[in-house]
Amino acid sequence: MKKILLFGSTLIMALCMCTPEGRKQPQDFSYQPDYKQLKVDTLRLKQIDVLLQDYVDKGIIPHALTFIAKNGQVIHNKTFGWRDVEAQTALEKDDIFRMYSQTKAINTVALMTLFEQGKFQLDDPVSRYIPEMTDQVIIPGGDPYAPKTRKAASPVLIRHLLSHTSGIQGARQPRGTPARQYDTLKDIVVNLVQAPLIFDPGTGWNYHPASDVMAYLVEYFSGKPLQAYLKEVIFDPLGIVDMAYYYDEEYRKRFVTCYRADSTGKIAPVEMWSNVPRSPFESDRRLAQGGTGLNGTIEGYARFCQMVLNYGKFNGQRILGRRTLEIMAKDQLAHPEGSDDSFRFGLGFQIYPGESNRWEVGNGSSPMVSPGALSWGGMANTDYIIDPKEDMIILLYTNRVPDTLVWEKFLNTVYQALE
To answer: Which of 11, 49, 67, 299 is the most exposed place for a label (fewest CB within 10 A)?
Structure first.
């Protein structure tokens, strides 16, 4: 429902602003959508319910939660299935999900707020701020634990961290030693950046490891712990509650049970935070990583997505400037002649390509999604789309691994309801 604030006898509707194209930018969600004005077919929306309930009934997924808003009006926000299948505890809309790689976009935005403050340039070498950063690249072949290297053709830039094009690999452990446990982000990063790169910066795409370096730079430039900076600059201004790395014990009952499917497709509960990232109920709460570890409600992440759709402003608070988000939505990948041209990635977000590009089943894409839409998701199947062309955000949350094709099919049921 639209918020109406009463001051004396004056009714003040929720704030709005306009995009460069003149589109209104709602500053709060309305839960009383005008389907006719939005040109959404309510009968066809029921295809979403049929699909997700069928997946739950067949035991393919334990639960599902949707959040779809068009022009800030929530057109679908429903629960399906169970927070805990064995206990037959029904899923609730404010339940807390393990978000995994959805953490990345939030930390990317955090670093870009510091870019806007003039703390750095995107093409600054990382070694300017982290002197341990290597300038060596692995020569293909040979012993992976004792690789031969050469000097990199160019330095790792901050831009490369945000687009996963740095060549930074996961830190290697000496052969035969147990995985090292870290207490702080700085501990991880200092070890991480000394390992030789797996390709020259900017020439390839390797997902995830550079995210911790990105997050460390948030701490470096802000002078604050990552968790404190996210709360101060993103969560509190956007009105996002219950999104965090760590929680008091009283929150445990709201956490969705994670499930894993075996080779036959049968799902069973699994402890998803046994090692790294740490349990959200850990007593030692110093470590917060850049690429994983955040947990939260679907409505909380929807607020973040709506802020991006609004060119940086939601809840009456500006997080980023319009031009910054336009830069973030530009493809950063090299596309050598003859390579697969269907995958595009900006600063923190996947970018859906044009409709003429080839699509591959099972890669998280759908030809129904508008070209230029932004997206990504988490390992346990929390996914989102930010679609400026349709003025819409689309989120689907489950906590089940490995992936199913429900996300792609779900997108079909959403877009087919648009008139």
So the answer is: 11
